[in-house]
Design brief:
Length: about 200
Amino acid sequence: MANVVKNYGLKALYRRGGGAIPTEMHVALSAASALGVGDPVIYAGDGNISGLASIDIAIGTEGTPSVNIIGVVQGIEATGPGSLATHGGATGSERKVMVALALPDVVFQVNAGNNAGLNSADIGSNFDLVLGAVDAATGRSTWSLDDASTSTTTANQVRLIGFVDRPDNEQAATGTDTDNIACKVVFLESGVVGLPGVGI
């Protein structure tokens, strides 16, 4: 059976070596973009009156991705009646945002949704992410892995370290690309550690 065609953003899976996935509370100010659970985010260079650092979507396109991603949205909390729309993630009002940090030892899951397909020979290669609008019905991200952006340099955003071992995550034979496969990735360019492009 073919894999389900569904982009759902990024999900923090586990931390290499064990331990809790590190998270931090941030704020999306009223001018920030709409955010969904699973969206990668960057520092916006501001903050709120409580001292929380402000964030915004890591806007980028194929070939020109955002660098210095600090993490992935885990949850969004409305701070008042004006931010209740679209699961609290809508633009135009301040929102508190819990972020799973993009540290080099945190493994994330993301769908390879650019339809070029991936196979086991791609493990260890580096890729970029593709921007997707927030799903209005669920409040989830629709970002995916740009499976056509493969590279062996550290200029890309994430490194593919494997595929999710699950019965419903079909993997074709070695050397045969599989569309919409659930991938395990780590961030190469982290705004948390301040070493964009260095890799791990």
